[in-house]
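Predict structure. Chain length: 295.
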Amino acid sequence: MEHEEGMHYEGYCIRPPSEAFSVLLQVTLGCSHNKCTFCGSYKDKIFRIKDEEIILSDIKFASKYMRNQNKVFLMDGDALIIPQDRLCWIMDQINSHIPWTRRIGLYANARSIRRKSLEDLITLREKKLGIVYLGVESGDDKVLKEINKKTTKDELISLGRRVKEAGIKLSVTVLLGIAGRERSIEHAKATGELLSEMDPDYVGALTLMLIPGTPLYEDYRNGRFQLPSQRELLLELREMIYHTQLSRGLFFSNHASNYLPIKARLPEGKAEALRLINAALSGKVELRPEWMRAL
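Prediction complete.
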């Protein structure tokens, strides 16, 4: 089924900032987990894998009209959950019809990586899967349980290492503020320790934005969850970076949700990042105004 009218996108589509210029290929709808208490991204979608004829039609459309784009990103929230044979078929079609593709990327979660053996991941890497984006959020088991991630710190470390061992780049996100005020520092320290053991290629620190309609937003409204203050979020970021040891990874906090944009290559950039946070805490560095913060 070939078509000329465009790609078959359904609903609100989300991709990482680094995939802005990629071919966005929607191969699943929604997220296979879709139970995290803070996330409202896919509440309007029931998870399913899209029909092969639709996927192939979009690949053929991209091959004709997107010849200047050499990266492909597989949406929606968790494309790695696709059974191995079907996912390999999708990648084979991309490589056949868009042979100039340099890298394929996708979102993953603990459940989807858990279902892929090291050999499965190596096979996907050989088919140009070059980067996996994993939402870690926290290294604190208490926080992971409260936000319903259905995984643990130790399992996340093991799964992240599996991706790396397969020769695939690993980009993880962590959430400032997700532990609330009470466990802010414990969460930051535990997350830094997780990152040190996992050793991802990229870390993106986002600041929690409370989304109406989510369980965490209701906890906030009812007084069961307290969002850390601007200063407490900076202290949390400082604690997290202080406890993060990467072999050669980039640590970003330049997402639009953050008050203080940071981009540091660790380990050599750690001292400068901590100096910048301390300067912000003492009022010597201007923070992003509230009206400029957004998802």
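Summary: The longest strand covers residues 129-137.
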